[in-house]
Amino acid sequence: MVSIWVGERVRLRAREPTDWEAFQAFDEHSDAVRNAWRIEPPMSAARMKKRMAEEAEQDADLDEFSLVIAAKDGNAPVGSLLTHGADRVHGVFLYGIAIGTPHHRMGYATEALLLLLRYMFYERRFQKAEARVYSSNDASLALHRRLGFVEEGRRRRCHYAGGRFDDEVLFGMTIEEFTERHA
């Protein structure tokens, strides 16, 4: 049997203290960081090592967690994803994904999301996934549309970065939509 956390290109795994260098390097690409959340002041190597060690020590939660997206060959980090806002009553969760700039357009995000959605829908019994994407993030907008997410709404001018305001686009996908497209 093969692990549900492993695809053809990627492996979803827990953070390790040794991942600090890869994530510090990813933070050097300001445009990518802006698309994922916000730019913060540079972090020292000591602080980044401590942060990664602390995150590696955290207890895992079945519904809200953060994982490293690692290249299957070599296990090196290429990005990360997290789940949050898990609502067990209504069966809805949100997630975020970020791929380091050197690893863009290699299929890592697509495969990582499909692995995550299979877990959340078929193992955790959620019925809907939601994602929020900034309107200037053309690559992520295209990814979500290509995967079959439905644009459900828009929060206007709610994100400021790089001297401009962006809308936040809300995407959703139900388990039935996922199963029809990706089973």
TrEMBL record:
<dbReference type="InterPro" id="IPR000182">
    <property type="entry name" value="GNAT_dom"/>
</dbReference>
<dbReference type="InterPro" id="IPR016181">
    <property type="entry name" value="Acyl_CoA_acyltransferase"/>
</dbReference>
<dbReference type="GO" id="GO:0008999">
    <property type="term" value="F:protein-N-terminal-alanine acetyltransferase activity"/>
</dbReference>
<keyword id="KW-0808">Transferase</keyword>
<dbReference type="Pfam" id="PF13302">
    <property type="entry name" value="Acetyltransf_3"/>
</dbReference>
<dbReference type="GO" id="GO:1990189">
    <property type="term" value="F:protein N-terminal-serine acetyltransferase activity"/>
</dbReference>
<dbReference type="GO" id="GO:0005737">
    <property type="term" value="C:cytoplasm"/>
</dbReference>
<protein>
    <submittedName>
        <fullName>N-acetyltransferase</fullName>
    </submittedName>
</protein>
<dbReference type="InterPro" id="IPR051908">
    <property type="entry name" value="Ribosomal_N-acetyltransferase"/>
</dbReference>
<feature type="domain" description="N-acetyltransferase">
    <location>
        <begin position="10"/>
        <end position="176"/>
    </location>
</feature>
